[in-house]
Amino acid sequence: MKFVNREDEIKYLHNHFKSEPNSLLFLYGPKSSGKSTLLSKVVNEIDTKKYVVNFLDLREMLIYNFDSFIDRFFPKTLYGKVQDLADGITFNIGFFGINLKSDEKLLQQNPFKLMGDKLRSAKEKNKQPIIIIDEIQLLKNIYINGERYLLDELFNLFIRLTKVTHTAHIILATSDSYFIEEIYNSAKLMQTSEFYFIDHFNREEVYRWLTAEGFTQNEIENVWKNIGGSPWEIQQILQKITNGLSVKQACEFYINEKYGKISYYRSEILDYKTINEFDRINKNIVEKGAYIRNDNEKPLIISPLIKDMVTHDFWSIDLSDD
Ligand SMILES: Nc1ncnc2c1ncn2[C@@H]1O[C@H](COP(=O)(O)OP(=O)(O)O)[C@@H](O)[C@H]1O
Ligand SMILES: [Mg+2]
Predict the structure, then answer these.
(1) Is the pTM higher than 0.85?
(2) Class of domain 7-197
């Protein structure tokens, strides 16, 4: 796969890493807009003499309760290898390996303190730790001993590590814009976090990409009008073309598939009253590019329809003001 565009985003992330850790960073945006791809790209460019990177993709870690969280974040099988922070960049091998003799007790008593201690010890060795957790919303609904909410404890730790002690960069990525909306409306996180939106490509970026792929003006316009700027969907179109379809055929294939899904949802799932709201919002999206809520809807009470559409990735929420 050829990586294209994202110059501003790459610069933003490199600058973020250069500065002293001072706030939690939430990276959000519609599913398949390229958040994970961007993060991997930037992390692989990073100077491993200065930074240690711990990249966890929760989709691959199967965490369903607090015990599995502890097992995945502190893998004991790696005992001896990654007791502190491994050098360089690690993907999906947990936070730190656990030294069964010296750390096991603290792990049982207070895993959050253990995480903080380990990050501080890396920092003392003159390495700037970077923690990236992708699909953070997958920790939703996990409780510690049925009482405390795991994400609350983690966010408290992350706020301390960034804003208070400036120990580590913490990047949390999510495609779940309903989840990010909840975070955004929590006063505590709002004041301690940055939010960075990774959107689909805009028209100019699609043009740049497809011109380089040898598309004609007309073909690009066809893709932009019908598919839009989703990098994943454009990759699918490119794939179809490699397999022998024309641009027009590839676009038609996609439109039919999308149209099928949306009209099924409209006619089979929605009740008569909700269909009106559905049509009204879609009309706005088609005509103006987005549906803009008016100010007295904020802080939001999200309608069940919006929540559902966002959860199904038909729509996404953009929190930025402009
Ligand atoms: N900068 C890019 N250049 C080219 N293709 C991209 C780029 N970003 C994303 N893609 C394509 O989109 C797909 C989905 O991207 P991904 O990073 O998984 O999205 P997200 O993490 O936001 O859900 C990738 O597998 C890739 O095919
Ligand atoms: Mg992703």
Answers:
(1) yes
(2) alpha beta
